[in-house]
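sry for the spam today, last one i promise. struct tokens for design, 288 residues
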């Protein structure tokens, strides 16, 4: 089993001969795995590339390993331990309370999503305070700072990527309001239609958008049967624990989202997000 570490592209020397690990990774290398100079390790850059390396130098830090450092000699590029899914899948999920969103980030990363987008909805029980905002508190608000939560989710995604053998880190986006998401999708769709009008349709990748709702939708199989070809890019939107507001459902359908309701049982929001990801990876990705 590979002993894997993460370093962004800018952590590699200009000539690509060495790579430096950040404090947390260096501490894991020395303090947990107890690797020494000359030991083999693997480093991935979060963009799909992975390298076989040898530990060159390890220096212990002071209090709480604040000065921990590690330098590795890059021996050559290797194939990632696990392949990436061919499906460009964005999982958009309404903000969930407690550690439920943490679970979604972890499992979605393991299942191979390309990006995770937190969405602020009317019935969400969490309200995050954005940078530069006074952070008006509403129902269930915990006064949490969005930047702190996003940083946490990105750490969880990194840990899940390492565990699952991925060399590409999913993009964990900053939270976006439902209205902003709908407006952005409408703008992108208009740009896509303009591009399609000037190019051969076969050269334009069409993005499909699925809106999972507890009411007012059709079955997933029925919806997918109407698609003429396998999509290369998908966005799946999963609602909050309290479901969708009628206005949100109407707006999503009006913006071109396909409303989908699946199964005969009501799923928890975090369960639905994981099930949706697994189903779409099975149908269009590499989960077989």
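last one done:
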């Amino acid at each position: 089993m590979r002993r894997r570490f993460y370093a962004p592209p800018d952590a590699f020397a200009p000539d690509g001969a060495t790579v430096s690990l950040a404090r947390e990774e260096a501490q894991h290398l020395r303090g947990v795995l107890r690797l020494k100079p000359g030991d083999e390790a693997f480093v991935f850059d979060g963009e799909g590339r992975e390298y076989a390396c040898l530990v060159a130098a390890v220096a212990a830090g002071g209090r709480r390993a604040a000065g921990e450092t590690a330098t590795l000699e890059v021996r050559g590029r290797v194939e990632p331990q696990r392949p990436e899914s061919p499906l460009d899948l964005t999982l958009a999920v309404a903000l969930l309370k407690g550690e439920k969103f943490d679970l979604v980030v972890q499992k979605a990363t393991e299942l191979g999503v390309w990006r995770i987008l937190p969405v602020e909805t009317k019935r969400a029980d969490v309200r995050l305070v954005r940078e530069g905002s006074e952070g008006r508190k509403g129902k269930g608000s915990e006064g949490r700072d969005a930047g702190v939560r996003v940083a946490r989710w990105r750490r969880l995604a990194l840990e899940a990527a390492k565990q699952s053998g991925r060399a590409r880190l999913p993009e964990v986006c900053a939270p976006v309001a439902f209205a902003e998401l709908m407006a952005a999708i409408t703008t992108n769709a208009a740009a896509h239609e303009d591009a399609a009008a000037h190019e051969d349709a076969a050269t334009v990748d069409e993005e499909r958008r699925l809106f999972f709702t507890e009411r007012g939708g059709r079955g997933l199989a029925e919806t997918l049967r109407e698609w003429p070809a396998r999509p290369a890019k998908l966005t799946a939107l999963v609602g909050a624990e309290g479901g969708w507001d009628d206005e949100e459902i109407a707006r999503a359908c009006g913006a071109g989202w396909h409303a989908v309701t699946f199964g005969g049982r009501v799923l928890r929001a975090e369960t639905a997000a994981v099930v949706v990801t697994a189903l779409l990876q099975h149908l269009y990705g590499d989960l077989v």
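Confidence is low (pLDDT under 50) at residues 134-143, 195-205. ok im logging off now
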